[in-house]
From TrEMBL:
Any coiled-coil regions, as ranges: 9-38
Keywords, sorted A to Z: Coiled coil
Residue ranges of domain SCAN box in the record: 140-228
Keyword Oxidoreductase: no
Protein name: Putative retrotransposon
A Pfam family per the record: SCAN
Top-level lineage group: Eukaryota
Amino acid sequence: MEKIKLEKEIRLEQQKQEQELELKRLESETHLKELEIQAKYKSESDSSPSSSAHRSQPYFDASRYIKLVPKFTEIEVDKYFRHFEKVAANMKWPKEVWTLLLQSSFVGKAREVYSALPMEKSENYDEVKQAILKAYELVPEAYRQKFRGARKNDNQTHVEFARIKEQMFDRWLHSKDVGENFVKLRQLFLIEEFKRCIHPDIKTHIDERMIDTLHAAATKADDYALTHKLSPNKFYQARSQKPKINTVTE
């Protein structure tokens, strides 16, 4: 028993040391980022005609606010970004330092994605956000597939399944920035139905582009069909053609 207890204490001590080293590493990275931003501001202010006005502005000390950054969770990544944006807006943090504050909280896949980004993209909050959402497959198309593909299992009540379906639908709409805008919602469903009825290659072509209106989707579809010489009739004939039944006559 004493041996097991001793081994447990050693493991706990090792974990504590690893956590302390990780904290120091994050603090070091944050400090380096602060120096980079400070140097960038100084360079911009020195080259600006209104340099004296720039120098009079207080420097943003990110290290003072890192503790206020929400803890990152890989379970609900999309909710995390919405939460962070609310905190940042309420605290009036300049958007150019958001990634500096965020990177200290990243773990797992999010940290890997952030580390792999080029310097210019790692400083852009929107670029960082989209790269991480894409890594976790939290892009509009993934949400759409989850919403369409969700099926009730035997362990769920119908109320539970309806709630999950509703949550998936809301996340799909939020990822498309629809909100309560009826015009956007109308276009979203028209595009969805349009893509369901067209050639798979054209559908893929449309999915790969940020298209918000049915007219834009139809224009892209015609351009693709013309460029790739796709027959407008073959696909629809194949969909509507019923299999022939061979009859045997005696």
